[in-house]
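Weekly modeling sync, notes
Attendees: S.R. (lead), two postdocs, one rotation student

Agenda item 3: backlog of single-chain predictions. S.R. asked that every request posted to the team notebook include the full sequence so nobody has to chase files. The rotation student volunteered to paste the first one in as an example of the format we agreed on. Action items at the bottom.

Example entry:
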Amino acid sequence: MFNKVISRKNSGCFKHDGLKTVYGRDDIVPLWVADMDFAVAPVITDAIARRMQHPIYGYNLIQDEFYQAAISWQKNRHDFDIAKGHIIAVPSLMTALAIVVLTQTTEEDHILIQTPVYPPFFSSVTGHNRKLLTNELKRKDGYYEIDWEDFEAKAKFAKMFILCNPHNPVGRVFTFDEISRMNDICAKYNVIIFSDEIHGDVVYAPSQHFPIGKLGYQRVITGISPAKSFNLAGMATAIMHTLDSEIAAQLNELNRGLHTFMGNSFGLAAFTAAFAEGGEWLDQLTAYLKGNRDYLGEFMASELPQIKVRDCEGTYLAWLDCSALEMTDEEMSKFFIDKARVALNPGTSFGKEGSGFMRLNFATPRVVLEEGLSRIKNSIREIL
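Predicted structure, as returned to the notebook:
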């Protein structure tokens, strides 16, 4: 079912219909925005259809089955015990992050992030006039690790730490030991943690996602959503979870003040169905994505050794080291757009540490991935 190519053009889809606006042309293979080119699980479309049968779409009262679906999913998939009273419904994890930043920090506070990282992490800090601290991940043989000395030195001055696990764009799934050490350092200095775990359900064995909230540190806010794993970003439905009752009250107050708490009628139905009934479909998806990941790695090794890529442990995002092409970042972006005719995300959009890199989204039917990689191979052979 994941091999089926579904046209997304003229559907109001940013990944496809936004090509002309962002890249200046639309005759390119879209391997950029982090959503998937697959139909959602049938249980989700069935749930949306059932909700649609009731012809009134007014204000929502979030039902118990919504909370129970999230609770059961976290328990069954990650052995993470969460409770209804600790859950706050929001439209997205970036909405959640903004609410956390606005309620838990002031303009005098420093916020720590690990770079290179998802671009809205930067703007969530600087856009609210908070002070940015960066802990640059160390790269060795294509593998990224935490610079612990730097992390602790900066945590001393931070009011808040934003964790991305699994990590976008480098594809790390942090180990239990790494999660525990970050947790302990933040607890030592009373640092609030916002953990974006939106990719937590797309992880490849033997790696295993470990929610940092499982460790019991009260000042952790976990962001959870089926947006990536079930391809529901357009449904604008997510949750955040914290054990700290005072923090929860502050988050709830702003969430209500912004009127972002009632939910989208169809998003609530999709969220509930995904987490209540979508496990088998997700297992099949993960197997397909692993096949695409492995195909990509093998293709690069045999056909494009100039571009280095290490298998990601989680996410469906490949972090391509293109430094051997000896292009500036601007030249490289133009090369992929105008010569290879493939839309990738430039590494510099994830911070200066992304210089020389491009991010590729392989959550697409294999034939589309093959076409994109073939275009890259042919264009590189023309210049070498």
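Discussion: group reviewed the output briefly. The chain has two domains: 14-41+280-383, 44-277.
Action items: rotation student to repeat for the remaining queue; S.R. to check formatting next week.
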